[in-house]
Design a protein that fits this description.
The chain folds into 2 domains: 15-263, Aspartate Aminotransferase, domain 2 (3-Layer(aba) Sandwich); 265-387, Aspartate Aminotransferase, domain 1. It has 14 helices and 14 strands. The chain has helices spanning 15-21, 31-48, 62-73, 87-98, 116-125, 146-155, 175-178, 204-211, 224-235, 247-263, 265-285, 313-322, 350-366, 375-387, and strands at residues 4-5, 54-59, 79-84, 102-107, 130-134, 136-137, 142-143, 159-163, 182-186, 197-202, 302-306, 325-326, 328-329, 339-343. Strands 2-10-9-8-5-3-4 form a 7-stranded mixed β-sheet, with helices on both faces. The longest helix has 21 residues, at 265-285. The structure holds 4'-deoxy-4'-aminopyridoxal-5'-phosphate (PMP). 4'-deoxy-4'-aminopyridoxal-5'-phosphate binds at residues 9, 61-63, 88, 134, 137-138, 163, 165-166, 186.
Length: 388
């Protein structure tokens, strides 16, 4: 039957976006496509709240966007502070290491985020070229507030790089106001487009730092030398070529960005917050606990939930799937089979989450876990009504 895809990306996509994917592919220099690409770059600025930013749209995944930030901004021996609240923080460290960075990993205890105090203490110890933040770490469901960290970065003359793969278009973001130097994401999450696009917004300062490099970018595909003229050309509605863009994905991107901007980012963030809050209340009413230790640090784009004692990960997820709800398992190797993750971003609605909670209750009951049927639905409804 029809399944509800509730993993933290890819997500359920708007029918109009999927429809756009199916157009007859045009030339990447066709006037219509140049217009679509140019519009997409402009719409990105609205979603990132970065009128001054330089957007990049490149075929690849979120990891390529991370690679691009590291390749273009880091030179051999640069000190980089990696602030980690899970699996994807460490991935950034691994990527930076490949480019010869001198990385320091600041890692929070499981379920917590790194304190501002710890970050500032570390920034005092040496001259950091950059720091990286994972806005929402998809492995733990932890949300970090980038604003005070970006302020610290500024105070210590350090570039701030935000991995927004699981946050952009779902969580609050004001790139220019917060003075974040790079905010990157991928298409398949809250941006609402099938996998295959790396999206990145660079500040004027980031572009300057790249321009002032002493050594060439040691990565051909990721090098802004190749991509910046292309982005500028599309924005000026001129044909250009470096690597063939993912034409159909870019058409879908324009469609989705238009949907996002029509809703408006502030309203969209509010919707994500209110749905996530009601969902967490529903989860708590079943006596299930989530990985983040506080609600303030719980993401609004996904929730990571510990299994109750005695529930087998594979049995649980396959029963959920046979009940037409696809969810994700754990990602942190230390506790991989002890928790599961549910994505709730993009076009997600209250009805979707009611369906998820209902399937969750049925699955727990079927696997022998006692609970009062309907409890999480009632809690969800009550909580959701409060904010809507
Ligand atoms: N960072 C975060 C926070 C992510 O959630 C992901 C994907 N789950 C990535 C980076 C990597 O993105 P991709 O899988 O598209 O390469």
């Amino acid at each position: 039957g029809r399944k509800l895809l509730m993993i933290p990306g890819p997500i359920e996509f708007e029918p109009d976006v999927l429809h756009a994917m199916g157009i007859a592919t045009t030339s990447h220099v066709a006037p219509n496509f140049i217009e679509v690409f140019g519009n997409s770059l402009e719409l990105m600025r609205a979603v990132w709240k970065s009128p001054k930013g330089q957007p990049f749209i490149v075929a690849g995944t979120g990891t390529l966007a991370m690679d691009m930030a590291a390749a273009n901004l880091i030179e051999q021996g640069d000190h980089v502070l990696v602030i980690s609240s899970g699996y994807f923080g460490k991935r950034f460290r691994d990527i930076l290491d490949r480019y010869g960075a001198n990385t320091t990993l600041l890692e929070a205890a499981l379920g917590e985020v790194v304190s501002l105090e710890a970050i500032e203490n570390e920034l005092k110890t040496k001259s950091y070229k950059a720091l990286t933040i994972t806005h929402v770490d998809t492995s733990t469901g932890l949300l970090v507030d980038p604003k005070p960290i970006a302020l610290l970065a500024k105070k210590y003359h350090t570039l701030s790089i935000l991995d927004g793969v699981c946050s952009v278009a779902g969580e609050a973001l004001h790139q220019d106001e917060w003075e974040l130097d790079v905010v990157l994401t991928a298409s398949q999450k809250a941006i609402g487009v099938p996998p295959g696009l790396a999206l990145l917004m660079a500040s004027e300062k980031a572009i300057q730092v790249w321009e002032n490099r002493k050594t060439p970018v040691p990565n051909y595909y990721a090098d802004w030398t190749n991509w910046l003229p292309i982005m500028r050309a599309y924005e000026e509605r001129r044909p250009s070529y470096f690597g063939t863009p993912a034409v159909n994905l870019v058409v879908a991107l324009e469609t989705s960005l238009k949907i996002i901007c029509k809703e408006g980012m502030d309203k969209r963030v509010k919707r994500h917050r209110s749905l996530a809050k009601a969902f967490r209340a529903g989860i708590a009413s079943l006596n299930l606990s989530i990985l983040p230790k506080t609600n303030k640090t719980a993401a609004n784009t996904l929730t990571a939930i510990y299994y109750p004692k005695g529930i087998d990960d594979l049995a649980f997820r396959s029963k959920m799937a046979s009940d037409d709800v696809i969810i994700a398992g754990g990602l942190l190797s230390e506790i991989k089979t002890q928790y599961f993750r549910i994505g709730h971003m993009g076009s997600v609605s209250a009805s979707d989450l009611v369906a998820v909670l209902a399937a969750l209750e049925r699955t727990l009951i079927a696997l022998g876990h006692p609970l009062e049927s309907g409890k999480s639905l009632q809690t969800f409804q009550k909580e959701h009504l409060k904010t809507n």
